[in-house]
Amino acid sequence: MRILVVNVNTTESMTEAIGRQAAAVASPGTEIVPLTPLFGADSVEGNYESYLAAIAVMETVRNYPEPFDAVIQAGYGEHGREGLQEILDVPVVDITEAAASTAQFLGHKYSVVTTLDRAVPLIEDRLKLAGLDARCASVRASGMSVLGLEEDPDAAVNAIVAEAAIAVAQDKAEVICLGCGGMAGLTERVIERTGVPVVDGVAAAVTIAESLVRMGLTTSKIRTYAPPRPKTFKNWPLSSVPVLAGQA
Amino acid sequence: MRILVVNVNTTESMTEAIGRQAAAVASPGTEIVPLTPLFGADSVEGNYESYLAAIAVMETVRNYPEPFDAVIQAGYGEHGREGLQEILDVPVVDITEAAASTAQFLGHKYSVVTTLDRAVPLIEDRLKLAGLDARCASVRASGMSVLGLEEDPDAAVNAIVAEAAIAVAQDKAEVICLGCGGMAGLTERVIERTGVPVVDGVAAAVTIAESLVRMGLTTSKIRTYAPPRPKTFKNWPLSSVPVLAGQA
Amino acid sequence: MRILVVNVNTTESMTEAIGRQAAAVASPGTEIVPLTPLFGADSVEGNYESYLAAIAVMETVRNYPEPFDAVIQAGYGEHGREGLQEILDVPVVDITEAAASTAQFLGHKYSVVTTLDRAVPLIEDRLKLAGLDARCASVRASGMSVLGLEEDPDAAVNAIVAEAAIAVAQDKAEVICLGCGGMAGLTERVIERTGVPVVDGVAAAVTIAESLVRMGLTTSKIRTYAPPRPKTFKNWPLSSVPVLAGQA
Amino acid sequence: MRILVVNVNTTESMTEAIGRQAAAVASPGTEIVPLTPLFGADSVEGNYESYLAAIAVMETVRNYPEPFDAVIQAGYGEHGREGLQEILDVPVVDITEAAASTAQFLGHKYSVVTTLDRAVPLIEDRLKLAGLDARCASVRASGMSVLGLEEDPDAAVNAIVAEAAIAVAQDKAEVICLGCGGMAGLTERVIERTGVPVVDGVAAAVTIAESLVRMGLTTSKIRTYAPPRPKTFKNWPLSSVPVLAGQA
Amino acid sequence: MRILVVNVNTTESMTEAIGRQAAAVASPGTEIVPLTPLFGADSVEGNYESYLAAIAVMETVRNYPEPFDAVIQAGYGEHGREGLQEILDVPVVDITEAAASTAQFLGHKYSVVTTLDRAVPLIEDRLKLAGLDARCASVRASGMSVLGLEEDPDAAVNAIVAEAAIAVAQDKAEVICLGCGGMAGLTERVIERTGVPVVDGVAAAVTIAESLVRMGLTTSKIRTYAPPRPKTFKNWPLSSVPVLAGQA
Amino acid sequence: MRILVVNVNTTESMTEAIGRQAAAVASPGTEIVPLTPLFGADSVEGNYESYLAAIAVMETVRNYPEPFDAVIQAGYGEHGREGLQEILDVPVVDITEAAASTAQFLGHKYSVVTTLDRAVPLIEDRLKLAGLDARCASVRASGMSVLGLEEDPDAAVNAIVAEAAIAVAQDKAEVICLGCGGMAGLTERVIERTGVPVVDGVAAAVTIAESLVRMGLTTSKIRTYAPPRPKTFKNWPLSSVPVLAGQA
């Protein structure tokens, strides 16, 4: 089975890191294909970049030339998952929801520790729409920027551990979700230092995508995620634009 | 004061209809500027087109060459409002929220009557995120497509009235919101035939935008809608792409 | 258009202050008529006085001899709005709801800063009934009494700013609502010192009332706010009582 | 122990009926004192009359010349209970809340069957504020007016039974609350014909009031229901008005 | 009337204490029968022991040889009440729900102070299922174990008072529920020291059980709590096992 | 890896059916061990049997003599999962939660179709506690008893399909969960006839359990599911009782 794991930002090194994390948990027969969006910001840290990433991820997946069995959107609290579900017949798994769903099997309440404070409301909104907020004790910001996570993993671990500790002690979280695709790889060190289960969204999403494929389940096409109706588009898709078409 | 009223689809005749509706309720000193997105679908009826519209509306507003005092996103249940709030310093009003906020001053419960059934979950999700769902009795689909509204207004009125009547009788709605930018102009006829107040989102949004400007209020920049952080973009913005840049 | 702005307490100087605040934001063609209740407490700071104010406001409006286009109930978290909606054909706007509705267009979460701690549950209850609680980060008390606001505006500003700062930093509010009709006039100074948008309920209510009138919208009469059924009253209305009738 | 059971409307025959119902369930040592408000409507069927009743009930209880141990407000879905809790040191029990609290011990979900459709939103609002709505399957209107209940008890029973049957079959209610003080006395006949437990709010309130007194519990005075602060009143209380003072 | 008050743990001295507390509030004609489960843990402080207690309480009540009018399950936040309601025709009252229902008549918000931190989520879950969580300000742990309460009542009072004070000051609770059957008897001393009403679940349950019996009300048998269907059991009931049968 | 899949009732043929369904989806290296409880009812259709099953499942797992990596509780809407999480170090997955969690990745809303009407409230309660109710459109009863499912699979399919069709058309479900462990094996036929994805809880639970093990995740032991504290038990465990001990 082939699973596309799509980064939401255009920093190749993060795509690679996400790909490694995905591959580490994938089953023997699973091929992980990490993809970087055709356009967009080097890091996604707000609604503007996130909306841009939403459409970039969709175009990138549309332009992927080989067949695939599932798609993972590897951005925490980002827009776009519903669009992917519409345009694809294969299962789509968002890492925000994958992490929360998994955390709920491990403890009474879970918290998310993410990057910047401004990402918190986006994650809260995604969890609310996904119906996964009732057992969310808190979403906390470590204060690290997305790119800062890569530049200084030690500082990242320290900042994340500090917030995780508050989430456990004050908010009564029993599980921690690492709230950023870029945190892939930090899981083990965080577990070591907090003593509670730590869920990495990328790993969780891979297992869920594999499971859906194995069970022969995919997105319901009966209502919300029915295929887009035929439309006349103006100046779209980007593949008709020379500069971008050449990148595909 | 100048208010940009941005259509979410690329059908010029709908932009004009929305503009007329906005102008009809605007105060004497207000200039309404109707805008059609630079790219996207001729009608928005699902998440894919809606996400595309989100970014198209943002780019279109960014490319508008004159100063303006407020922006109205004239699409019902569409994505993107949070992005506009980030990139702009002036107030942003979404017609879905404008209609619901206004309806809540008029009755105990309100219902939304929209176009196709597939639009219902999108509107429900927008209302939930906006915290305007507690008094929403129902979101009902008239079965008319967005373009069908323009092609056959009589059939549209009939279909909308039929659902509005059920919303009032069964769901206990006391106010009806017309759930589509393209329904602008049908308000009076629907009021005539249902006997309950009918809120048009475009009109409601114009009065709210004017009010915010008059009170000197605009989007809080302290957290969720802080300006985007400086980023390096790949293949973006579209204005750097010759084909689209020529259209602007 | 003529808008009655009804104070909930019987302190004339507060009526005047509220009237000035309303007039400052009103459109050129709008006449603001500030009214003091015919009976009741000099300040409303609890359920007993609030229920009394509810009926006093209704009687006062009923006794107003000229036609009018809308009514604003200028008390924060007070009882009575539903009764006014029943007995009147024109729009009724409560400042608690006007402020919250307006705040929701400006930020992800808002907080209310009010007078005494005992007013907090009343405001929370009003927001819950109005379906405007989902995005309310907190209702905080400044500890100032209603009359204290008038006696010592500098202390009031200081106390309000202190709580607003906590609301922003701890409760993650992005907008502050001034939770007392008597705070009318303090808005600008609070904005200056907090850096987040500050909504004055009286101003917000005036713009909403004007907007509803302009759109030709008024309270739905189909169910909850249908006109009172014909009744036989004992010892009522007060206008039949000489002492009060003479005051009208 | 002496319990005041205060009717919300001024129809003496209903006060008597309520008093009989209360006395039927009262313990041997309990004296039930039925009271009719000093002023107000002959029947309460909307917010206007309900707000008037709120203040009338408070004045009536204040004017009661003997000591008492608890007060029951015998109106379904009416305003005012919070005010009584403020001005009194003894327990206050509202029949709407008494019935719902009791029903929750008897089945998974309960429904309320009330009089007119316009009373439904008032009852829903009271239950929501009381935190007793989560297990409320529905509030249904029998279509009988308050006075109609007294004029034609057989028709009342039929209408109530019809709605109760729908509540059980469709809304999955397992218990029925009789949603009107005026329904006191119909309980047994409704039980006979529906087969599910039927709770009369007056009876439930009497047992709860007695229980609170027996346990030495009364309203917390620490915050929401602290005694009213000293105020200067204009044209109030009514006892200073000759016409009403003579009635007391 | 005879009311069985069933301890959830097998410590006889706690059964006696609970019985005394129940008897102290019972009406003259009420016989309180305290029962200790036939099997199970000496103290219940977690899900494992609680599930065991659930079935032990049911078996113990089934084996009680005399007729009875109501059953009280005297464990705070424990499993099993729904099962008792199924197998019995008489009313069943859980002390967790009895305390919360009673507290809601006394203040705007209530808090529960219980034993160990690990009991908190169990109590929160019970309140959520009972629909009694909306007005629960907090559930707080005193850190005392169940048996510790008995061994050192003074330390227990101190620990409970400390948490109650935080609940009142920070969580805005206006009423305190003593969240453990083993706290029976501490009520008065806690009231003395906190100044807010303190509800003991055992006392509250006795008055509610008596009230239901007096009103002729019992569990609805129409759906959720219909009698168990006829089943073939393997190795059950325990009364067929010699060792236990000998104990009954 | 070895996964125990524990039936909640004592009907061996159902254990076998559940085991086959689990094995069908299990990964190559996974050994599925189906277990029948040591005691309890032949079918679980209510709270009494469910509570008994809760403790029976725990004892059965405790008595299993070999090491294992995860446990699946294969009963829909049953009690006991929290207890298993306490007494075990390996992941515990309940099929009710597994199905709902999986369904949420496939559509905007899901419905559960279960056996008897009396099971509906139990399932609703489990989903509420699990925080998986927000996107549950409905829980519907097919009217088939648990054993009836096995006796007449064709009638079962028909009854389930009929309710699923209503769930899709009226309740707007986009995914169906088969709400009974005994429905294992009917999945494919139901998918064929409804056109929407159908989730079997047993299959979903197996993939989730495998995923948790693969990621090295297990129940958080920090609070709610900490190991039981040391206790003195009376007449327990059953393994000390000769009759039952002989069965183990």
From TrEMBL, chains A, B, C, D, E, F:
It comes from the Bacteria. It comes from Crystallibacter crystallopoietes. The lineage of its organism: Bacteria, Bacillati, Actinomycetota, Actinomycetes, Micrococcales. This is Hydantoin racemase. Belongs to the HyuE racemase family. Pfam families: Asp_Glu_race (PF01177). It catalyses: D-5-benzylhydantoin = L-5-benzylhydantoin; a D-5-monosubstituted hydantoin = a L-5-monosubstituted hydantoin. Its EC number is 5.1.99.5. GO terms for molecular function: amino-acid racemase activity; hydantoin racemase activity.
